[in-house]
Structure formats: structure tokens, C-alpha cells
Amino acid sequence: xxxxxxxxxxxxxxxxxxxxxxxxxxxxxxxxxxxxxxxxxxxxxxxxxxxxxxxxxxxxxxxxxxxxxxxxxxxxxxxxxxxxxxxxxxxxxxxxxxxxxxxxxxxxxxxxxxxxxxxxxxxxxx
Length: 126
Ligand code: THU
Fold this sequence. Notes:
4 helices
């Protein structure tokens, strides 16, 4: 399953729209009932309007009625591990416990698995 998620994250990265940063990101999110939702970053001429790959994947899943997530794979430019930015950490934490896993991918056989609780401890929630 990890291999499939990584493969889908790489595929999603191909659709990244990143003409400004040139930094393409792909993400693949696994739900508790086995579905995979992918995302890529989508930038905008008005820079802050752009959205990260992780939030696209999570939003696609939520829009499809899914809110129970197990793990997300994230791949950046492959020369270093890419971790969700602060905004994405907060966005993901809305739906995930501290046991949710983030796979930060460099290549198919070079990745790190981190728990949400490590990435965003003392999460804000209402
Ligand atoms: N980006 C993501 O898609 N995910 C992250 O976790 C970090 C940053 C995107 C945003 C922007 O389009 C580009 O990477 C450079 O910051």
C-alpha cells in the first residue's frame, strides 16, 4: 500500500501547476475505507491564492464525503524530503488524530514516515 501511495503521489505531481515557484508537489491520501485521493499544488499569479498539494487531496476527499484518513504521501522535488507546510498541518489536523501518518517521499525506496503528533504537537482545535 505504501508503494501504491508513493506511485500515485508521483503521478499527481505531474499535474502540478507551479509556474512561479517551479516547485512541483504531489500528494496521495488513503482513507480508512481504502480509497486514494490525490492532489498537486496549484499556484496563482496572485501568489497567496495558490494551494498546496496536501490541501487539494484532503479537500477532494472531504468533498466526496470522506473524512476518515489513515496516511498521506507527499513528494516534492525529490532532492530532499518534503513535509507539509504549517497551513497544511493545521488543515490536515482538522480530520486526523495524532496517529495519522505522513510519508515524506524522495523516491520509491527513500522515504520517511512521521506521525501527525510529531509534525504538529499541541494542535489547536475547538
Ligand atoms: N507546497 C505544497 O504543495 N505542499 C507543501 O507542503 C509545501 C509547499 C507548494 C506551495 C507552492 O506552490 C510550492 O510548493 C512552493 O512553495
